[in-house]
Amino acid sequence: MDKNNFALTPPMGWNSYDYYDTTVNEAQVKANADFMAAHLKEFGWEYVVVDIEWYSNDAGTIRDRFQYIPFGDVEMDAYGRLQPSPARFPSSADGKGFASLAEYVHNLGLKFGIHIMRGIPRKAAHENCPVIGAGETANRIADPSSICIWNPDMYGVRDTKDGQAYYDSLLSMYADWGVDYIKCDDICDSRLYREEPFLGWEETRMLHRAIEKCGRPIVLSLSPGPAHIDRAWEYCKYANMWRITDDFWDDWSLLKAMFARCELWQDHVRAGCFPDCDMLPVGKLGKGFGQEWETRFTKEEQRTMMTLWCMFRSPLMIGAELTLLDEWTLSLLTNRELLSCMGRTCHGMQIMRSEEQVIWKNEDTESGRLCVALFNISDTDAVLSVTLNELTGARGSDDGAGIDENAGRSGAEGAESEKTLYELWTKEESRTVSGKIEAAVPAHGVKVYRVGQ
User: What global pTM score does this model have?
Assistant: First the structure.
């Protein structure tokens, strides 16, 4: 199965983590799926993803002490495979897993995803569980020296025939449930292991092989970041998306730093392979963390974030509780013109970046549509500009920067070659002047234009 045949464009959807932390339940997932189907699906949003600890029966019960309870009460089948908590996901009772919930999501015309941790449950190893298709039990497959620094649930899986059998059995079960998307954690990068024996590279390959065998197209997303740029080829070969940052939250310093990350990874965005800027922390957040808050991003910063993610063509995962979205946030997420930059034949490229400003373009190689974004990343309002020459010149080059393409022409001839401009957020029309796009851009804000004739 070619992994690139079912993720030709960046995946777009909702993920439960930013609002619910470890505590989301079946009714809440269904409510968000219902909202997506009614208000977002027509704009390309389609994945409904249940994030971390869906197998935990006691998640969130002592949140003031532990986000992930050491040796907590987890649901697991006889073969060492974690199962949804029936108290939180009633339809999973009697070994049904996520099959009923996935069917509910599919019946809305959407796709269903889950979060998993790299490895095999420690509980499975301690109980010497048999593994389907393996000659060894879970305690022999597990590597107790390969652990996650921040989550105590798993041991790494040894890169052996029997280790592969465990992942094969896991993906076979997920395929039976109807899973379309897997976000695997503690695998893209590890703050504990900078060298081997971190098993993330081996287990990524094992997951990829298991997906190929399971008979169902399943998007593989790797977390957390930052991903290693020197292993870009490996992410592209074995996964569909991978995080280029640690957890991203509603903090301007994190958003400003994302411009450098996108510059680093822009040449590795292609069909089926998407460097991931992480979730969109908009709207209402944090209820599962013990306090609900409205995103700390200003409206200008939210437009900047949404514009950069789309120009770069990052996957888009909404972190908010969808049923609490206000009209302004909904409009942020349903800008058809901006979302068109995510298309299969589109390509994003940084034109320049300094401490005060960043300029990106996004071009559709099939239709020829060209968009350009002028980002003001300084703390004061500023007038930003880019010439049409710069948009067609080499990336990062100063050759021709600021040169008027109309210089030396007659007034009539120059006017005829000017381009119309359509600003995607304000919907205002204007024209280039002397072959230049120029705009007053508020601090931390953006102007993004479709460039026409």
Answer: 0.93
